[in-house]
Amino acid sequence: MPLVTPLSPDHDAETQKLADFYNETLGFCPNSVLTMQRRPDISKAFINLNKAVMANEGRVTSALKRMIAWVSSNATGCRYCQAHAIRAAERYGAEQEQLDNIWEYRTHPAFSEAERAALDFSLAASQVPNAVDDSIKTRLYEHWNEGEIVEMLGVISLFGYLNRWNDSMGTSIENGAVESGEQYLGKHGWNKGKHI
């Protein structure tokens, strides 16, 4: 049972219009946003931040951004966000081999060194205490420019917010996200946890 019950998708007309973004991303409006709309300024600000963070300004692809989100969510243990991130990676064209082997990104040949550097950055930046060090910085600069690093940290930070929001709320997870979580993450023990 969630801490706060999500409202209907049509509760706030402005949020509903902005939330059309999620129909492309996930195929549904997430319950996290439906809960945020109890304070519409929060839901609207969050959706606009999400759109800005996920915009492609450089070589950081939509699929890689979603895999960065998955690594961040995996590091914090948020099962809700893990399932959403892997579903969005799938919908944004991540290679099947990457989806099937996301847990092994450090060693699996489906991932490039540039992707590994980005995903290691996500893992280090999502830990408490933060583990970004000179080694991570050096690897990032071998493959990415400063604007692209800002894009990546935008994703990591956005999911830091979402991980805390959804784990604290115990946000109910939607069927589509459950399907993706079970398909790609279930073999490694993923389940809905408290996100019933």
From TrEMBL:
PANTHER family: CARBOXYMUCONOLACTONE DECARBOXYLASE-LIKE DOMAIN-CONTAINING PROTEIN (PTHR35446:SF2), SI:CH211-175M2.5 (PTHR35446)
A Pfam family per the record: CMD
UniProt name for this protein: Carboxymuconolactone decarboxylase family protein
Gene3D superfamilies xrefs: AhpD-like (1.20.1290.10)
Domain Carboxymuconolactone decarboxylase-like: 40-120
